[in-house]
Specification:
Length: 560
Protein backbone atom coordinates (compact mmCIF):
# COMPACT_ATOMS: atom_id res chain seq x y z
CA UNK A 1 0.00 0.00 0.00
CA UNK A 2 1.28 3.51 -0.80
CA UNK A 3 2.20 5.42 2.37
CA UNK A 4 -0.19 8.32 2.88
CA UNK A 5 1.35 11.66 1.92
CA UNK A 6 1.10 14.07 4.84
CA UNK A 7 0.64 17.11 2.58
CA UNK A 8 -2.33 15.47 0.89
CA UNK A 9 -3.82 14.36 4.18
CA UNK A 10 -3.59 17.89 5.59
CA UNK A 11 -5.08 19.36 2.44
CA UNK A 12 -7.97 16.89 2.44
CA UNK A 13 -8.66 17.33 6.15
CA UNK A 14 -11.31 20.07 5.76
CA UNK A 15 -9.76 22.35 8.36
CA UNK A 16 -8.25 19.63 10.58
CA UNK A 17 -11.35 17.45 10.67
CA UNK A 18 -10.20 14.48 8.65
CA UNK A 19 -12.09 11.40 9.74
CA UNK A 20 -11.50 11.97 13.47
CA UNK A 21 -15.19 12.48 14.26
CA UNK A 22 -16.29 9.32 12.44
CA UNK A 23 -13.48 7.24 13.84
CA UNK A 24 -14.14 8.40 17.38
CA UNK A 25 -17.55 6.85 17.04
CA UNK A 26 -16.34 3.41 15.97
CA UNK A 27 -15.34 0.64 18.35
CA UNK A 28 -11.69 0.35 17.25
CA UNK A 29 -9.09 1.11 19.90
CA UNK A 30 -7.03 3.10 17.41
CA UNK A 31 -7.33 5.59 14.53
CA UNK A 32 -6.40 5.05 10.90
CA UNK A 33 -3.03 6.32 9.62
CA UNK A 34 -4.65 9.36 8.03
CA UNK A 35 -6.72 10.33 11.06
CA UNK A 36 -3.70 9.85 13.30
CA UNK A 37 -1.80 12.53 11.38
CA UNK A 38 -4.58 15.08 11.83
CA UNK A 39 -5.08 14.06 15.45
CA UNK A 40 -1.62 15.46 16.20
CA UNK A 41 -2.83 18.96 15.38
CA UNK A 42 -5.40 18.45 18.13
CA UNK A 43 -2.58 17.73 20.59
CA UNK A 44 -3.06 13.96 20.59
CA UNK A 45 -0.56 11.22 19.69
CA UNK A 46 -1.52 7.66 19.02
CA UNK A 47 0.97 5.43 20.82
CA UNK A 48 1.40 1.92 22.11
CA UNK A 49 2.78 0.78 25.42
CA UNK A 50 5.87 -0.75 23.83
CA UNK A 51 6.68 -2.85 26.87
CA UNK A 52 3.20 -4.36 27.09
CA UNK A 53 3.34 -5.02 23.34
CA UNK A 54 6.60 -6.90 23.73
CA UNK A 55 5.08 -9.08 26.42
CA UNK A 56 1.89 -9.86 24.53
CA UNK A 57 1.85 -9.23 20.81
CA UNK A 58 -1.62 -10.68 20.36
CA UNK A 59 -3.38 -7.95 22.35
CA UNK A 60 -4.08 -4.38 21.26
CA UNK A 61 -1.92 -1.92 23.20
CA UNK A 62 -3.02 1.33 21.61
CA UNK A 63 -3.21 4.29 23.92
CA UNK A 64 -2.86 8.04 23.54
CA UNK A 65 -0.68 10.87 24.74
CA UNK A 66 -2.43 14.21 25.15
CA UNK A 67 -0.36 17.39 25.32
CA UNK A 68 -1.89 20.57 26.69
CA UNK A 69 -0.70 23.88 25.40
CA UNK A 70 0.36 26.34 28.09
CA UNK A 71 1.96 29.57 26.80
CA UNK A 72 4.88 30.52 29.04
CA UNK A 73 4.01 27.44 31.13
CA UNK A 74 1.33 29.35 33.03
CA UNK A 75 -1.62 27.69 34.79
CA UNK A 76 -4.12 28.80 37.40
CA UNK A 77 -4.72 26.64 40.46
CA UNK A 78 -8.00 25.41 38.94
CA UNK A 79 -6.23 24.44 35.71
CA UNK A 80 -3.57 22.54 37.63
CA UNK A 81 -6.24 20.68 39.60
CA UNK A 82 -8.08 19.83 36.37
CA UNK A 83 -4.87 18.29 35.00
CA UNK A 84 -4.28 16.41 38.23
CA UNK A 85 -7.85 15.04 38.26
CA UNK A 86 -7.57 13.85 34.67
CA UNK A 87 -4.23 12.17 35.31
CA UNK A 88 -6.08 9.98 37.78
CA UNK A 89 -9.30 9.48 35.86
CA UNK A 90 -7.96 8.88 32.37
CA UNK A 91 -4.16 9.09 32.46
CA UNK A 92 -1.58 6.77 33.96
CA UNK A 93 -1.58 8.46 37.36
CA UNK A 94 1.26 10.82 36.48
CA UNK A 95 1.61 14.22 34.88
CA UNK A 96 4.62 14.90 32.68
CA UNK A 97 6.04 18.42 32.48
CA UNK A 98 7.55 18.79 29.03
CA UNK A 99 10.66 20.61 27.91
CA UNK A 100 8.37 23.23 26.32
CA UNK A 101 6.45 24.08 29.48
CA UNK A 102 3.43 21.91 28.73
CA UNK A 103 1.82 18.97 30.48
CA UNK A 104 1.40 15.56 28.90
CA UNK A 105 -0.94 12.76 29.87
CA UNK A 106 0.07 9.26 28.88
CA UNK A 107 -1.98 6.11 28.66
CA UNK A 108 -5.36 7.63 27.73
CA UNK A 109 -7.60 5.19 25.86
CA UNK A 110 -9.45 6.10 22.70
CA UNK A 111 -12.86 6.01 24.35
CA UNK A 112 -11.64 8.50 26.96
CA UNK A 113 -10.17 11.08 24.61
CA UNK A 114 -13.26 13.17 24.08
CA UNK A 115 -14.04 13.51 27.77
CA UNK A 116 -10.42 14.32 28.64
CA UNK A 117 -10.13 17.06 26.04
CA UNK A 118 -13.61 18.38 26.85
CA UNK A 119 -12.81 18.68 30.54
CA UNK A 120 -9.51 20.38 29.79
CA UNK A 121 -11.36 22.90 27.67
CA UNK A 122 -13.83 23.48 30.48
CA UNK A 123 -10.82 24.46 32.56
CA UNK A 124 -9.87 26.82 29.68
CA UNK A 125 -6.91 24.69 28.62
CA UNK A 126 -6.50 23.87 24.96
CA UNK A 127 -4.61 21.08 23.26
CA UNK A 128 -5.09 22.49 19.75
CA UNK A 129 -1.74 23.04 18.07
CA UNK A 130 0.25 21.35 20.85
CA UNK A 131 1.56 18.99 18.14
CA UNK A 132 1.38 18.92 14.32
CA UNK A 133 2.80 21.05 11.49
CA UNK A 134 1.94 24.30 13.14
CA UNK A 135 3.22 26.83 15.69
CA UNK A 136 3.66 24.91 18.95
CA UNK A 137 3.52 26.13 22.52
CA UNK A 138 5.21 29.51 22.78
CA UNK A 139 7.83 29.40 25.51
CA UNK A 140 8.79 32.29 27.77
CA UNK A 141 10.69 32.67 31.00
CA UNK A 142 8.30 31.31 33.63
CA UNK A 143 9.47 33.38 36.59
CA UNK A 144 6.61 35.46 38.01
CA UNK A 145 7.36 39.14 38.18
CA UNK A 146 5.53 42.32 39.06
CA UNK A 147 7.81 44.43 36.87
CA UNK A 148 5.52 45.73 34.08
CA UNK A 149 8.36 45.71 31.55
CA UNK A 150 9.13 42.07 32.21
CA UNK A 151 5.43 41.19 32.29
CA UNK A 152 5.12 42.79 28.87
CA UNK A 153 7.77 40.40 27.61
CA UNK A 154 5.94 37.36 29.01
CA UNK A 155 2.68 38.65 27.54
CA UNK A 156 4.11 38.19 24.06
CA UNK A 157 3.80 34.43 24.61
CA UNK A 158 0.02 34.97 24.74
CA UNK A 159 -0.11 37.54 21.93
CA UNK A 160 1.84 35.24 19.61
CA UNK A 161 -0.26 32.25 20.61
CA UNK A 162 -3.43 34.15 19.72
CA UNK A 163 -2.00 35.55 16.49
CA UNK A 164 -0.82 32.15 15.28
CA UNK A 165 -3.66 30.00 16.57
CA UNK A 166 -5.19 27.86 13.83
CA UNK A 167 -8.56 29.05 12.60
CA UNK A 168 -10.82 26.02 12.61
CA UNK A 169 -14.13 25.10 14.15
CA UNK A 170 -13.22 21.41 13.94
CA UNK A 171 -11.61 21.30 17.37
CA UNK A 172 -14.63 22.56 19.24
CA UNK A 173 -17.02 20.53 17.15
CA UNK A 174 -15.16 17.29 17.73
CA UNK A 175 -14.10 17.59 21.34
CA UNK A 176 -16.15 20.22 23.08
CA UNK A 177 -19.56 20.55 21.45
CA UNK A 178 -19.69 17.04 20.05
CA UNK A 179 -21.86 18.40 17.20
CA UNK A 180 -22.32 16.64 13.94
CA UNK A 181 -19.52 17.75 11.65
CA UNK A 182 -20.78 20.13 9.01
CA UNK A 183 -18.38 20.85 6.19
CA UNK A 184 -19.96 24.27 5.62
CA UNK A 185 -18.08 25.41 8.71
CA UNK A 186 -14.74 24.98 6.97
CA UNK A 187 -12.87 28.26 6.75
CA UNK A 188 -9.44 28.28 5.13
CA UNK A 189 -6.87 29.35 7.67
CA UNK A 190 -5.51 32.82 6.72
CA UNK A 191 -1.95 31.97 7.80
CA UNK A 192 -1.67 28.22 7.46
CA UNK A 193 -3.85 27.69 4.38
CA UNK A 194 -4.99 24.14 3.60
CA UNK A 195 -1.65 22.44 4.07
CA UNK A 196 -0.50 24.20 7.25
CA UNK A 197 3.28 24.34 7.69
CA UNK A 198 5.76 21.91 6.14
CA UNK A 199 6.77 20.92 9.69
CA UNK A 200 6.49 21.97 13.33
CA UNK A 201 7.44 25.54 14.28
CA UNK A 202 8.75 26.64 17.67
CA UNK A 203 8.99 30.05 19.32
CA UNK A 204 10.68 31.06 22.58
CA UNK A 205 11.06 34.39 24.35
CA UNK A 206 13.99 35.12 26.66
CA UNK A 207 15.20 38.08 28.66
CA UNK A 208 18.67 39.16 27.54
CA UNK A 209 21.12 37.39 29.82
CA UNK A 210 18.81 34.56 30.95
CA UNK A 211 18.60 31.61 28.61
CA UNK A 212 16.22 29.49 30.69
CA UNK A 213 14.24 28.68 27.52
CA UNK A 214 17.20 27.59 25.35
CA UNK A 215 16.27 30.40 22.99
CA UNK A 216 18.80 29.52 20.24
CA UNK A 217 17.26 26.07 19.72
CA UNK A 218 13.96 27.47 18.43
CA UNK A 219 12.71 28.31 14.95
CA UNK A 220 12.18 31.82 16.26
CA UNK A 221 13.83 33.23 19.36
CA UNK A 222 13.05 36.66 20.74
CA UNK A 223 15.52 38.13 23.19
CA UNK A 224 14.10 41.07 25.14
CA UNK A 225 16.42 44.06 25.39
CA UNK A 226 16.04 46.72 28.08
CA UNK A 227 17.64 50.17 28.20
CA UNK A 228 19.42 51.65 31.21
CA UNK A 229 16.11 52.85 32.65
CA UNK A 230 14.89 49.23 32.49
CA UNK A 231 12.43 50.03 29.70
CA UNK A 232 11.79 47.33 27.11
CA UNK A 233 13.19 48.68 23.84
CA UNK A 234 12.54 45.61 21.71
CA UNK A 235 13.84 42.18 20.81
CA UNK A 236 16.80 40.69 19.04
CA UNK A 237 15.30 38.30 16.53
CA UNK A 238 16.89 34.86 16.23
CA UNK A 239 15.77 32.52 13.46
CA UNK A 240 16.46 28.97 12.34
CA UNK A 241 17.35 26.95 15.43
CA UNK A 242 16.43 23.30 15.83
CA UNK A 243 17.74 20.15 17.44
CA UNK A 244 16.41 17.21 15.43
CA UNK A 245 18.81 15.04 13.46
CA UNK A 246 19.04 11.45 12.30
CA UNK A 247 22.01 9.18 13.02
CA UNK A 248 24.14 8.53 9.92
CA UNK A 249 22.39 11.20 7.88
CA UNK A 250 24.65 14.23 7.45
CA UNK A 251 21.91 16.12 5.66
CA UNK A 252 20.20 16.46 9.04
CA UNK A 253 21.76 18.33 11.96
CA UNK A 254 21.17 20.34 15.08
CA UNK A 255 21.52 24.06 14.46
CA UNK A 256 21.56 27.22 16.55
CA UNK A 257 19.41 30.11 15.40
CA UNK A 258 21.01 32.97 13.45
CA UNK A 259 20.87 36.46 14.93
CA UNK A 260 18.91 38.32 12.28
CA UNK A 261 18.24 41.83 13.62
CA UNK A 262 16.37 43.94 16.15
CA UNK A 263 12.65 44.72 16.19
CA UNK A 264 10.52 46.96 18.38
CA UNK A 265 7.77 45.55 20.60
CA UNK A 266 5.16 46.89 18.13
CA UNK A 267 6.78 44.89 15.31
CA UNK A 268 6.93 41.54 17.10
CA UNK A 269 3.63 39.93 16.09
CA UNK A 270 3.80 41.04 12.47
CA UNK A 271 7.43 39.95 12.16
CA UNK A 272 6.96 36.51 13.67
CA UNK A 273 3.86 35.97 11.53
CA UNK A 274 5.96 36.82 8.47
CA UNK A 275 8.66 34.34 9.52
CA UNK A 276 5.98 31.66 9.81
CA UNK A 277 4.79 32.45 6.28
CA UNK A 278 8.36 32.15 4.97
CA UNK A 279 8.51 28.67 6.45
CA UNK A 280 5.09 27.96 4.95
CA UNK A 281 6.11 29.12 1.48
CA UNK A 282 9.75 27.99 1.25
CA UNK A 283 9.86 24.93 3.52
CA UNK A 284 10.54 21.57 1.91
CA UNK A 285 7.22 19.79 1.41
CA UNK A 286 8.80 16.77 -0.27
CA UNK A 287 11.20 15.65 2.42
CA UNK A 288 10.02 15.94 6.02
CA UNK A 289 13.56 15.42 7.28
CA UNK A 290 14.54 18.64 5.51
CA UNK A 291 11.40 20.59 6.19
CA UNK A 292 12.26 22.66 9.28
CA UNK A 293 12.90 26.37 8.95
CA UNK A 294 16.55 25.83 9.96
CA UNK A 295 17.26 24.22 6.60
CA UNK A 296 15.91 27.28 4.78
CA UNK A 297 18.37 29.42 6.71
CA UNK A 298 21.19 26.95 6.14
CA UNK A 299 20.46 26.54 2.42
CA UNK A 300 19.60 30.12 1.46
CA UNK A 301 21.61 32.09 4.00
CA UNK A 302 20.71 34.72 6.54
CA UNK A 303 21.04 37.63 4.05
CA UNK A 304 18.45 36.08 1.78
CA UNK A 305 16.24 35.44 4.78
CA UNK A 306 16.49 39.02 6.06
CA UNK A 307 15.65 40.42 2.62
CA UNK A 308 12.66 38.14 2.29
CA UNK A 309 11.43 39.01 5.76
CA UNK A 310 11.84 42.75 5.18
CA UNK A 311 9.99 42.45 1.88
CA UNK A 312 7.10 40.75 3.65
CA UNK A 313 6.83 43.13 6.61
CA UNK A 314 7.62 46.29 4.64
CA UNK A 315 10.22 47.69 7.05
CA UNK A 316 13.92 47.18 7.69
CA UNK A 317 15.14 45.31 10.69
CA UNK A 318 17.43 47.36 12.91
CA UNK A 319 20.94 46.12 13.68
CA UNK A 320 21.22 43.56 16.43
CA UNK A 321 21.46 45.18 19.87
CA UNK A 322 24.30 44.25 22.22
CA UNK A 323 23.36 41.56 24.72
CA UNK A 324 25.02 40.61 28.00
CA UNK A 325 26.39 37.06 28.08
CA UNK A 326 23.73 34.44 28.73
CA UNK A 327 23.46 32.23 31.78
CA UNK A 328 20.61 29.92 32.79
CA UNK A 329 18.48 30.89 35.78
CA UNK A 330 16.31 27.89 36.70
CA UNK A 331 14.18 29.82 39.23
CA UNK A 332 14.25 27.05 41.85
CA UNK A 333 13.94 27.68 45.59
CA UNK A 334 12.24 30.63 47.30
CA UNK A 335 12.25 33.84 45.27
CA UNK A 336 10.61 37.23 45.66
CA UNK A 337 8.15 38.24 42.97
CA UNK A 338 8.56 41.96 43.59
CA UNK A 339 4.99 42.50 44.80
CA UNK A 340 5.50 41.36 48.37
CA UNK A 341 4.72 37.76 47.40
CA UNK A 342 7.00 34.77 46.94
CA UNK A 343 7.31 31.98 44.47
CA UNK A 344 8.80 28.59 45.17
CA UNK A 345 10.54 26.63 42.42
CA UNK A 346 10.41 22.89 43.03
CA UNK A 347 12.65 20.47 41.10
CA UNK A 348 10.77 17.70 39.31
CA UNK A 349 13.10 14.97 38.15
CA UNK A 350 12.68 14.68 34.37
CA UNK A 351 9.36 16.48 34.71
CA UNK A 352 7.47 13.44 36.01
CA UNK A 353 4.94 14.52 38.62
CA UNK A 354 4.37 11.29 40.49
CA UNK A 355 4.14 9.74 43.96
CA UNK A 356 6.91 7.21 44.56
CA UNK A 357 7.02 5.64 48.01
CA UNK A 358 7.53 8.32 50.64
CA UNK A 359 8.29 10.94 48.01
CA UNK A 360 4.73 12.08 47.33
CA UNK A 361 5.33 14.89 44.88
CA UNK A 362 2.03 14.66 43.06
CA UNK A 363 -0.16 14.49 46.19
CA UNK A 364 1.91 17.17 47.89
CA UNK A 365 1.76 19.62 44.99
CA UNK A 366 -1.96 19.16 44.77
CA UNK A 367 -2.40 19.66 48.51
CA UNK A 368 -0.38 22.89 48.47
CA UNK A 369 -1.95 24.29 45.30
CA UNK A 370 -5.48 23.45 46.45
CA UNK A 371 -5.06 24.76 49.98
CA UNK A 372 -3.57 28.13 49.02
CA UNK A 373 -5.13 28.47 45.56
CA UNK A 374 -1.71 28.98 44.03
CA UNK A 375 -1.01 29.63 40.38
CA UNK A 376 1.71 27.47 38.85
CA UNK A 377 4.32 27.83 36.13
CA UNK A 378 6.10 25.05 34.30
CA UNK A 379 9.68 25.69 33.27
CA UNK A 380 11.63 24.59 30.22
CA UNK A 381 13.84 22.55 32.56
CA UNK A 382 10.73 20.49 33.43
CA UNK A 383 10.31 22.01 36.90
CA UNK A 384 7.34 23.69 38.58
CA UNK A 385 7.01 27.09 40.24
CA UNK A 386 4.28 27.74 42.82
CA UNK A 387 3.42 31.42 42.66
CA UNK A 388 1.81 34.14 44.74
CA UNK A 389 2.74 32.85 48.21
CA UNK A 390 2.38 35.30 51.13
CA UNK A 391 4.81 35.66 54.03
CA UNK A 392 2.17 34.11 56.29
CA UNK A 393 1.67 31.10 53.99
CA UNK A 394 5.37 30.26 53.69
CA UNK A 395 5.70 28.21 56.90
CA UNK A 396 2.59 26.16 56.08
CA UNK A 397 3.85 25.53 52.53
CA UNK A 398 7.18 24.40 53.95
CA UNK A 399 5.42 22.13 56.43
CA UNK A 400 3.53 20.46 53.57
CA UNK A 401 6.76 20.07 51.59
CA UNK A 402 8.21 18.25 54.59
CA UNK A 403 5.06 16.21 55.20
CA UNK A 404 4.95 14.92 51.62
CA UNK A 405 8.72 14.49 51.55
CA UNK A 406 9.05 16.60 48.44
CA UNK A 407 12.66 17.24 47.46
CA UNK A 408 13.63 20.88 47.28
CA UNK A 409 16.56 22.43 45.51
CA UNK A 410 18.58 22.17 48.74
CA UNK A 411 18.17 18.40 48.65
CA UNK A 412 19.70 17.81 45.22
CA UNK A 413 23.15 18.23 43.76
CA UNK A 414 23.93 20.87 41.11
CA UNK A 415 24.36 18.16 38.49
CA UNK A 416 20.89 16.69 39.16
CA UNK A 417 19.44 20.17 39.22
CA UNK A 418 20.67 20.77 35.66
CA UNK A 419 19.79 17.33 34.27
CA UNK A 420 17.02 16.84 31.69
CA UNK A 421 15.83 13.67 29.96
CA UNK A 422 13.12 13.09 27.38
CA UNK A 423 10.22 10.66 27.82
CA UNK A 424 11.49 7.84 25.55
CA UNK A 425 10.34 4.32 26.53
CA UNK A 426 7.80 2.90 26.98
CA UNK A 427 5.51 5.39 25.24
CA UNK A 428 7.58 7.18 22.61
CA UNK A 429 7.30 5.35 19.33
CA UNK A 430 10.61 6.78 18.13
CA UNK A 431 12.76 5.85 21.12
CA UNK A 432 15.79 3.69 20.37
CA UNK A 433 16.83 3.53 24.02
CA UNK A 434 15.64 4.44 27.48
CA UNK A 435 16.02 8.00 28.75
CA UNK A 436 13.73 9.27 31.55
CA UNK A 437 13.57 5.93 33.34
CA UNK A 438 17.31 5.26 33.47
CA UNK A 439 18.56 8.81 33.78
CA UNK A 440 18.19 9.16 37.58
CA UNK A 441 20.51 6.16 38.03
CA UNK A 442 22.99 7.62 35.54
CA UNK A 443 22.98 10.86 37.51
CA UNK A 444 23.56 8.80 40.70
CA UNK A 445 26.73 7.52 39.07
CA UNK A 446 27.78 11.01 38.01
CA UNK A 447 27.24 12.23 41.55
CA UNK A 448 29.37 9.39 42.94
CA UNK A 449 32.13 10.11 40.44
CA UNK A 450 32.12 13.86 41.12
CA UNK A 451 32.04 13.21 44.84
CA UNK A 452 35.03 10.85 44.62
CA UNK A 453 36.87 13.47 42.63
CA UNK A 454 36.03 16.19 45.16
CA UNK A 455 34.21 18.28 42.59
CA UNK A 456 30.66 17.59 43.79
CA UNK A 457 29.77 21.23 43.24
CA UNK A 458 30.40 21.02 39.47
CA UNK A 459 26.95 21.69 38.01
CA UNK A 460 27.73 20.12 34.65
CA UNK A 461 24.71 20.22 32.33
CA UNK A 462 23.89 16.66 31.30
CA UNK A 463 20.97 15.65 29.11
CA UNK A 464 19.74 12.32 27.78
CA UNK A 465 17.42 11.41 24.95
CA UNK A 466 16.23 8.08 23.66
CA UNK A 467 16.92 9.02 20.03
CA UNK A 468 18.58 11.80 18.04
CA UNK A 469 15.39 13.87 17.66
CA UNK A 470 16.60 16.00 20.54
CA UNK A 471 13.49 16.47 22.70
CA UNK A 472 15.58 17.31 25.79
CA UNK A 473 17.69 19.68 23.68
CA UNK A 474 20.79 17.52 24.26
CA UNK A 475 22.99 19.20 21.68
CA UNK A 476 23.38 22.35 23.76
CA UNK A 477 24.33 20.43 26.93
CA UNK A 478 27.88 20.03 28.21
CA UNK A 479 27.41 16.26 28.13
CA UNK A 480 24.68 14.54 26.14
CA UNK A 481 23.76 10.89 25.91
CA UNK A 482 21.77 10.36 22.74
CA UNK A 483 20.06 7.00 22.16
CA UNK A 484 21.67 5.15 19.28
CA UNK A 485 20.57 1.49 19.37
CA UNK A 486 19.49 -1.01 21.99
CA UNK A 487 21.01 0.24 25.29
CA UNK A 488 23.73 2.14 23.44
CA UNK A 489 24.27 5.87 23.20
CA UNK A 490 26.33 8.44 21.35
CA UNK A 491 28.11 10.73 23.80
CA UNK A 492 28.26 14.41 22.82
CA UNK A 493 30.51 16.89 24.61
CA UNK A 494 31.15 20.59 24.42
CA UNK A 495 27.97 22.58 24.84
CA UNK A 496 28.19 25.32 27.46
CA UNK A 497 26.24 26.03 30.66
CA UNK A 498 24.49 28.94 28.92
CA UNK A 499 23.07 26.69 26.21
CA UNK A 500 24.50 28.86 23.43
CA UNK A 501 26.97 26.43 21.88
CA UNK A 502 26.49 23.11 20.12
CA UNK A 503 28.06 19.96 21.52
CA UNK A 504 29.92 17.61 19.17
CA UNK A 505 29.89 13.82 18.90
CA UNK A 506 32.59 12.36 21.13
CA UNK A 507 32.12 8.59 21.32
CA UNK A 508 29.62 6.32 19.64
CA UNK A 509 27.74 3.21 20.69
CA UNK A 510 28.61 3.35 24.38
CA UNK A 511 26.57 0.96 26.48
CA UNK A 512 24.34 2.45 29.16
CA UNK A 513 26.37 0.73 31.89
CA UNK A 514 29.62 2.15 30.49
CA UNK A 515 28.61 5.79 30.10
CA UNK A 516 29.97 7.12 33.36
CA UNK A 517 32.90 4.68 33.73
CA UNK A 518 33.94 5.80 30.24
CA UNK A 519 33.69 9.48 31.10
CA UNK A 520 35.35 9.19 34.49
CA UNK A 521 38.92 9.76 33.21
CA UNK A 522 37.66 12.84 31.37
CA UNK A 523 36.08 14.13 34.57
CA UNK A 524 39.34 13.44 36.40
CA UNK A 525 41.27 15.27 33.71
CA UNK A 526 38.84 18.17 34.09
CA UNK A 527 39.40 18.27 37.83
CA UNK A 528 43.17 18.32 37.38
CA UNK A 529 43.56 20.59 34.39
CA UNK A 530 40.65 23.02 34.46
CA UNK A 531 41.35 26.71 34.67
CA UNK A 532 39.77 28.94 37.32
CA UNK A 533 35.98 28.96 36.92
CA UNK A 534 36.23 26.96 33.71
CA UNK A 535 33.08 24.99 33.00
CA UNK A 536 33.30 21.36 31.90
CA UNK A 537 32.01 22.28 28.44
CA UNK A 538 34.57 25.05 27.99
CA UNK A 539 37.29 22.70 29.19
CA UNK A 540 36.39 20.03 26.61
CA UNK A 541 36.41 22.68 23.90
CA UNK A 542 39.78 24.11 24.98
CA UNK A 543 41.45 20.73 25.29
CA UNK A 544 39.76 19.37 22.18
CA UNK A 545 37.78 16.19 21.72
CA UNK A 546 40.64 14.44 19.90
CA UNK A 547 42.94 15.01 22.85
CA UNK A 548 40.26 13.70 25.17
CA UNK A 549 39.83 10.60 23.02
CA UNK A 550 43.59 10.03 23.09
CA UNK A 551 43.49 10.58 26.80
CA UNK A 552 40.92 7.85 27.13
CA UNK A 553 42.99 5.55 24.96
CA UNK A 554 45.87 6.05 27.34
CA UNK A 555 47.91 7.98 24.77
CA UNK A 556 47.65 11.40 26.34
CA UNK A 557 47.78 12.64 29.91
CA UNK A 558 47.47 9.78 32.41
CA UNK A 559 43.96 9.18 33.75
CA UNK A 560 42.70 8.34 37.17
FE1 LIG B 1 9.82 16.00 20.76
C1 LIG B 1 8.78 13.84 18.38
C2 LIG B 1 8.27 14.26 23.12
C3 LIG B 1 10.25 18.58 22.88
C4 LIG B 1 12.16 17.33 18.65
N1 LIG B 1 8.67 14.36 20.74
C5 LIG B 1 8.31 13.64 19.65
C6 LIG B 1 7.26 12.58 20.02
C7 LIG B 1 5.92 13.18 19.82
C8 LIG B 1 7.42 11.22 19.32
C9 LIG B 1 6.65 10.98 18.06
O1 LIG B 1 6.70 11.81 17.13
O2 LIG B 1 6.04 9.92 17.98
C10 LIG B 1 7.60 12.41 21.53
C11 LIG B 1 6.47 11.90 22.42
C12 LIG B 1 7.03 11.08 23.55
C13 LIG B 1 6.06 10.71 24.57
O3 LIG B 1 5.78 9.49 24.70
O4 LIG B 1 5.57 11.56 25.29
C14 LIG B 1 8.19 13.76 21.85
N2 LIG B 1 9.23 16.39 22.61
C15 LIG B 1 8.69 15.50 23.46
C16 LIG B 1 8.64 16.04 24.87
C17 LIG B 1 7.45 15.58 25.67
C18 LIG B 1 9.96 15.66 25.56
C19 LIG B 1 10.02 15.84 27.03
O5 LIG B 1 10.61 14.96 27.64
O6 LIG B 1 9.54 16.83 27.57
C20 LIG B 1 8.68 17.55 24.57
C21 LIG B 1 7.32 18.15 24.35
C22 LIG B 1 7.41 19.63 24.13
C23 LIG B 1 6.10 20.34 24.05
O7 LIG B 1 5.47 20.55 25.08
O8 LIG B 1 5.73 20.76 22.95
C24 LIG B 1 9.44 17.55 23.26
N3 LIG B 1 10.92 17.71 20.73
C25 LIG B 1 11.05 18.58 21.76
C26 LIG B 1 12.17 19.45 21.55
C27 LIG B 1 12.67 20.52 22.51
C28 LIG B 1 12.02 21.84 22.25
O9 LIG B 1 11.11 21.97 21.43
O10 LIG B 1 12.42 22.82 22.88
C29 LIG B 1 12.72 19.09 20.33
C30 LIG B 1 14.00 19.68 19.70
C31 LIG B 1 13.79 21.03 19.14
C32 LIG B 1 13.34 20.95 17.71
O11 LIG B 1 12.15 20.80 17.48
O12 LIG B 1 14.20 20.99 16.82
C33 LIG B 1 11.92 17.99 19.84
N4 LIG B 1 10.33 15.68 18.84
C34 LIG B 1 11.37 16.28 18.18
C35 LIG B 1 11.52 15.68 16.89
C36 LIG B 1 12.58 16.06 15.82
C37 LIG B 1 12.11 17.19 14.99
C38 LIG B 1 13.06 17.50 13.85
O13 LIG B 1 13.10 18.63 13.41
O14 LIG B 1 13.73 16.59 13.37
C39 LIG B 1 10.55 14.66 16.81
C40 LIG B 1 10.31 13.70 15.63
C41 LIG B 1 9.48 14.32 14.57
O15 LIG B 1 8.97 15.42 14.67
O16 LIG B 1 9.38 13.65 13.54
C42 LIG B 1 9.84 14.68 18.05
FE1 LIG C 1 11.09 10.15 21.79
FE2 LIG C 1 13.42 10.68 20.69
FE3 LIG C 1 11.91 12.66 21.57
FE4 LIG C 1 13.07 11.09 23.29
S1 LIG C 1 14.13 12.41 21.83
S2 LIG C 1 10.91 11.71 23.36
S3 LIG C 1 13.03 9.15 22.27
S4 LIG C 1 11.40 11.33 19.91
Amino acid sequence: MVKPNVEQIKSDSAGLRGSIGDELANSDRYFSDNAEKILKFHGIYQQEDREARKLDRSADHHQFMIRTRLPGGQLTAAQYIAHDDLATTYGNGTLRITTRQDFQFHGVLKGELRETVRLLNHALVSTLGACGDIVRNVMACAAPTSDPQRLAVQDFAFQLTRALYPVTSAYHQIWVDGEELIDDHVVEDPIYGKTYLPRKFKIAIAYAGDNCVDVYTNDVGLVAIFDEANTLTGFNLLVGGGMGMTHNNDATYARLADEVGFITPEQVVETVKAVVTIHRDFGDRENRKHARLKYILADRGVEWFRDELERRVGFSLQPLQPMPPFFVEDHLGWNEQGDGLWYLGIPVENGRVVDRGDYRLRSGLRAIIERFDLGTRLTAQQNILLVGITDEQRPAVEALITEYQILTVQDITPVRRNAIACVALPTCGLALTEAERVFPAVIDQVEDALDDLNIADAGITIRMTGCPNGCARPYVAEIAFVGRSLEKYTIFLGGNPAGTRLAKPFLDLVHLNDLIPTLRPVLTYYRDERQADESFGDFTLRVGLDTLRQHLAGEGVAGD
